[in-house]
């Protein structure tokens, strides 16, 4: 019990620290003054904390290192953060959290749907990139989903968003028209995925 509260306290302190110095951190990240290793560590820390929009981080890395390297760094950082958060929640709070979800009819229905099709559910949610990553990590950790399924679906599902926002960051200052076209294509892609996801969810629930 005490270890759980120590973890909660440490995370709260991390969130508070990032919130207080968020503007300085983003300025430092965008300047690229530090070695790439330190910037990668900061990218991991920011993936833990939903104070800073992570799309800004991806775009900044895309500007600094190009779309492919920026996307790769962002993808690896967010994947590492997802694994750690999943592991912490699974170890310290799965039983209590799952019991809490079962009290609500809507969350229980969603939980059962995700547990029946875990890979498809997590991959689609990651591809949509409209749900907070932290929420997805925590929710999945509370369910009966294997770690290998979670990490595989997460790693694959994150790729399109990382490539898109790293490319947008890289092109925004060079050719805004290309960036605009890319953004429109990505919006259409997300809208199409959302329609597919809604239909699939209704079919599975019926």
TrEMBL record:
User: How is this protein positioned relative to the membrane?
Assistant: Multi-pass membrane protein
UniProt KW GTP-binding keyword: no
Residue ranges of every copy of the VTT domain listed in the record: 52-170
Choose one Gene Ontology CC annotation of this protein and give it.
plasma membrane
Q: Which residue windows are transmembrane per the record?
A: 38-65, 72-93, 119-140, 147-170, 176-197
UniProt-annotated location(s):
Cell membrane
Domain of life of the organism encoding this protein: Bacteria
Supply the alphabetized keyword list.
Answer: Cell membrane, Membrane, Transmembrane, Transmembrane helix
Any Pfam family? VTT_dom
Any coiled-coil regions, as ranges: none
Q: Which family does it belong to?
A: Belongs to the TVP38/TMEM64 family.
Write the protein's name: TVP38/TMEM64 family membrane protein
Q: Say which species the protein is native to.
A: Paenibacillus cellulosilyticus
């Amino acid at each position: 019990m005490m270890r759980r509260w120590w973890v909660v306290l440490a995370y709260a302190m991390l969130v508070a620290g990032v919130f207080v110095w968020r503007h300085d951190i983003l300025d430092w990240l965008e300047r690229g003054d530090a070695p790439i290793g330190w910037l990668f560590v900061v990218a991991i820390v920011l993936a833990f904390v939903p104070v800073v929009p992570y799309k800004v981080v991806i775009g900044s890395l895309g500007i600094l290192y190009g779309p492919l390297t920026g996307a790769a760094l962002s993808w690896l950082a967010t994947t590492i953060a997802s694994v750690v958060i999943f592991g912490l929640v699974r170890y310290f709070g799965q039983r209590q959290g799952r019991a809490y979800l079962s009290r609500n009819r809507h969350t229980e229905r969603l939980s059962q749907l995700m547990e029946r099709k875990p890979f498809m559910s997590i991959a689609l949610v990651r591809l949509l990139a409209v749900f907070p990553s932290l929420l997805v990590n925590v929710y999945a950790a509370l369910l009966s989903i294997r770690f290998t399924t979670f990490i595989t679906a997460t790693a694959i599902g994150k790729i399109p968003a990382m490539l898109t926002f790293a490319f947008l960051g890289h092109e925004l200052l060079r050719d805004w028209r290309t960036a605009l076209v890319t953004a429109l294509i990505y919006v259409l892609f997300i809208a199409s995925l959302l329609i597919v996801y809604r239909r699939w969810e209704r079919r599975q629930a019926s």
